[in-house]
Known about the structure:
Number of helices: 7
Strand content: 15-25%
Largest sheet: 4 strands, antiparallel
Shape: elongated
Helix content: 25-40%
Oligomer: single chain
Radius of gyration: 22 Å
Amino acid sequence: MTPVRFLIFASFLCVVVVAQKAANGLPASSFTLKEVDWGMDWFDNWGIDRNYYAGPNGYLPNLAAETLDENKELAYSIGEGFKVDYPIETNRAVAILKYVQKWTEYGYDSDNVVRDGVPQEEWAWNADEMAHAFSDNIGVKAIGDCEDLAFLCGTIYVGAGFDAAIVDATDHVALLIWLPEFSNANVYWDLPNDGRDAGWIWVEATGSSNPLGWTPSEYEDGGWTAYPIGSFQFVAEPTPSTSPSIDVDVLMIIVVIISIILRILARAR
């Protein structure tokens, strides 16, 4: 085989392998079955329990760390691409949610996750595992439930330059992003420990038509916990607001400008 033919053949194999990985999903972790107080659970190589959400080894919010900072890979890079393509933050935020909704499909763990021949009643995929499971090139969607979609969105939004927080609600997981300038949210959330006022908005990717900023009615009164992910860490019990906060200094500047304009108009008369 000539060098040129060998190079062509090798390139073809690479394309086939990449396409196959994109279609079938590329596992980001290895898994080990370990004994816990309530039975046997699957743990990944980071020591996170993929079958249980709570506690120091639970997947909430620990699973986010597997796809951020030094561990960032495909999901984060997708976010970086959106940051380049959409310079206006509000447009970028809307586009990311629509993208995730287009290339994912909600499905129950017991119907879609099997380990050693046993369907898993509860299972959490990290963002990169979900990102490798869909392909916008060949039209393959990734299947996951609420926490899978929340972690996927979370890493993409952080990669796109947003502050994000995982929502741990009763029987549900979602995402918040900091975007007070977004004008179409039904609730603007205040996370008391972040040093800012209301301006967090809800990201709900479990339905194909859920708009950005829509907090489902059953969670509008709070009663859930938010875990910011990425570069800053705190735990907050949020409080709702129907409108985004306005910085006092900004408000004073606006008042002064209006006063000056009124004076100029009065003199002109």
